[in-house]
């Protein structure tokens, strides 16, 4: 599992490592600075060539002597804490490579924390440090265009909006190769939200030991650019509090198994002409490996669905309710919501489904019905999964959504993880909060993030019916016996993998058919 840390967890890991005597804060800072330099040279290999590219004692090549006349230039912006300390290390290492380095400090050198102060002093032996002056910094960046600008102003320690003179720089710098040390200054690393109004927008962010929550949540990815992770030798220390959703190796089927060993999912559909959404869910449930899938629909929709379904079975679910169908105890997972309808009969079916205590995905119209009826909400149980997008979430949990919508002015700012956890605890069931940073939370506080960002974007998932497929995938996984939390997290991961596997041009119908390729790649 890939962990995602809060700022406080990262501090605790660092302090524990230093207290153990295994390494010092200075060593960590040196490795962090070294990691930034290595990462930026790897990102932009042209910077590793020419004058300013240390070649040790090797002779310069004739080509180099002919073409390269100017040194590489870096502008390094340092802040008042240990992030600034990393910046002084970067400045020193780049100058040792032959670069021309200009350093600005925001804050008072006399108040730097001890490790940052040591690196400040080391740099002072090699070069100047100019006091922060927004116009001078922006002027320098514009006139002597640097090859890279290093943002080492604030990292995980930022708890307030950027001071105006820092914000002016972060929003006034020319577009280019801005490298953020650990975090783009201005971003809350617990929530991925901009504190106040301004944050740096980096081309590359280099972080240490583990990704922080802010790198993947909310606006974080927009501000980080590319994200690189550097090992600074802290080893594995954290418990897995929030992790990235990932592949589930348990999804294979044993050769001696029967279809009933893989569960029976029931997908409830709306009336005539409204069955497309439920059919998408049903196909996804079958493709993800449920042994049997039945679509339950009102009498008027039987003919339409019969004409469109083969491997998926069809049952009439009329005014008499669900009880008859659910008498079959082999039906072990339900999906209600896609194209379902919002009438009194549908509300009754939701109540019956909840009352049956079967594993249950509630999506789309079912979420609207829940939001309208506190009695239904009170029936939710631990085997339920709610799959709201932001609008549905706000209808279900208006106070939590309002808190999330408030401007972020103090760190740690209220995050989508906080919101999903609060909602799951209140609902008493698993909640999947959709987004590019889908958050899956359980009432216990367990939390995973399915991040479709950085090298895993899935922009073509923004298409009609994609949510119906996700609901179906999760229902199929519930039928196969996964617990609600695992089914939701694994389902979200598979959904993005399927979208990425298909690529541009994707429509919802393509998603179920793409799952076999994903499974093959997983070597199921
Ligand atoms: N935790 C670790 O293991 C390591 C941390 N390192 C670096 O240390 C950083 C964290 O250092 P710090 O905890 O010192 O935090 P920062 O350097 O991010 O900033 C903290 C300083 O900024 C001040 N501050 C916060 N918000 C402010 C605002 N809006 N206006 C003015 N001042 C403000 C604080 O009072 C404090 O002096 C990390 O991001 C990373 O770059 C690295 O050296 C490697 C190891
Ligand atoms: K920074």
UniProtKB/TrEMBL annotation:
<feature type="domain" description="YjeF C-terminal">
    <location>
        <begin position="242"/>
        <end position="522"/>
    </location>
</feature>
<protein>
    <recommendedName>
        <fullName>Bifunctional NAD(P)H-hydrate repair enzyme</fullName>
        <ecNumber>4.2.1.136</ecNumber>
        <ecNumber>5.1.99.6</ecNumber>
    </recommendedName>
</protein>
<dbReference type="InterPro" id="IPR036652">
    <property type="entry name" value="YjeF_N_dom_sf"/>
</dbReference>
<keyword id="KW-0511">Multifunctional enzyme</keyword>
<feature type="binding site">
    <location>
        <position position="182"/>
    </location>
    <ligand>
        <name>(6S)-NADPHX</name>
    </ligand>
</feature>
<comment type="similarity">
    <text>In the N-terminal section; belongs to the NnrE/AIBP family.</text>
</comment>
<dbReference type="Pfam" id="PF03853">
    <property type="entry name" value="YjeF_N"/>
</dbReference>
<dbReference type="InterPro" id="IPR017953">
    <property type="entry name" value="Carbohydrate_kinase_pred_CS"/>
</dbReference>
<comment type="subunit">
    <text>Homotetramer.</text>
</comment>
<dbReference type="Pfam" id="PF01256">
    <property type="entry name" value="Carb_kinase"/>
</dbReference>
<feature type="binding site">
    <location>
        <position position="185"/>
    </location>
    <ligand>
        <name>K(+)</name>
    </ligand>
</feature>
<comment type="function">
    <text>Catalyzes the epimerization of the S- and R-forms of NAD(P)HX, a damaged form of NAD(P)H that is a result of enzymatic or heat-dependent hydration. This is a prerequisite for the S-specific NAD(P)H-hydrate dehydratase to allow the repair of both epimers of NAD(P)HX.</text>
</comment>
<feature type="binding site">
    <location>
        <begin position="434"/>
        <end position="438"/>
    </location>
    <ligand>
        <name>AMP</name>
    </ligand>
</feature>
<keyword id="KW-0456">Lyase</keyword>
<feature type="domain" description="YjeF N-terminal">
    <location>
        <begin position="10"/>
        <end position="240"/>
    </location>
</feature>
<keyword id="KW-0547">Nucleotide-binding</keyword>
<feature type="binding site">
    <location>
        <position position="468"/>
    </location>
    <ligand>
        <name>(6S)-NADPHX</name>
    </ligand>
</feature>
<keyword id="KW-0067">ATP-binding</keyword>
<keyword id="KW-0520">NAD</keyword>
<feature type="binding site">
    <location>
        <position position="151"/>
    </location>
    <ligand>
        <name>K(+)</name>
    </ligand>
</feature>
<keyword id="KW-0413">Isomerase</keyword>
<feature type="binding site">
    <location>
        <position position="467"/>
    </location>
    <ligand>
        <name>AMP</name>
    </ligand>
</feature>
<feature type="binding site">
    <location>
        <begin position="155"/>
        <end position="161"/>
    </location>
    <ligand>
        <name>(6S)-NADPHX</name>
    </ligand>
</feature>
<comment type="function">
    <text>Bifunctional enzyme that catalyzes the epimerization of the S- and R-forms of NAD(P)HX and the dehydration of the S-form of NAD(P)HX at the expense of ADP, which is converted to AMP. This allows the repair of both epimers of NAD(P)HX, a damaged form of NAD(P)H that is a result of enzymatic or heat-dependent hydration.</text>
</comment>
<feature type="binding site">
    <location>
        <position position="339"/>
    </location>
    <ligand>
        <name>(6S)-NADPHX</name>
    </ligand>
</feature>
<feature type="binding site">
    <location>
        <begin position="82"/>
        <end position="86"/>
    </location>
    <ligand>
        <name>(6S)-NADPHX</name>
    </ligand>
</feature>
<dbReference type="InterPro" id="IPR000631">
    <property type="entry name" value="CARKD"/>
</dbReference>
<keyword id="KW-0479">Metal-binding</keyword>
<keyword id="KW-0521">NADP</keyword>
<dbReference type="InterPro" id="IPR004443">
    <property type="entry name" value="YjeF_N_dom"/>
</dbReference>
<feature type="binding site">
    <location>
        <position position="389"/>
    </location>
    <ligand>
        <name>(6S)-NADPHX</name>
    </ligand>
</feature>
<keyword id="KW-0630">Potassium</keyword>
<comment type="similarity">
    <text>Belongs to the NnrE/AIBP family.</text>
</comment>
<feature type="binding site">
    <location>
        <position position="277"/>
    </location>
    <ligand>
        <name>(6S)-NADPHX</name>
    </ligand>
</feature>
<dbReference type="InterPro" id="IPR029056">
    <property type="entry name" value="Ribokinase-like"/>
</dbReference>
<feature type="binding site">
    <location>
        <position position="83"/>
    </location>
    <ligand>
        <name>K(+)</name>
    </ligand>
</feature>
<dbReference type="InterPro" id="IPR030677">
    <property type="entry name" value="Nnr"/>
</dbReference>
